[in-house]
Amino acid sequence: MTVQTENNPESAGKVREEGAPPLSGIRVLDLTHVIAGSFGTTMLADLGAEVVKVERPGVGDDLRSSGRYSGRDDHEDMFNANNRSKKSITIDLKQEAGRLLPSAWQPKPMSWWRTSPRARRRVWVWAGMTCIPSTRD
Question: Which pTM does this prediction carry?
């Protein structure tokens, strides 16, 4: 997950509009998959952040195939519940053009994609990364 706040001198020091959600004006790039990360970024979206979900081309998030409402084969209930209020794009992180993105995966895959915290700082004003360890070894 990457969070970006505006880095515009004209917006510096501006107060959020009265009645605006607490995280309005904050952009979150959601590179998570399955439930834990998607749920966390959904909470940020519920609080007003602009969340953009990044998925693998042709495959999407594994949660898309988690289960459906009976009688509605086109509706992935777990995916929709954990990704409401988000925008969505697909980026192939294995291609050169997609390697600029940071990732919430472990360091080994990150080095494979040739990203580093130092490289990310050149692109994002403020970036936060959260890793939720797998229960598998």
Answer: 0.63
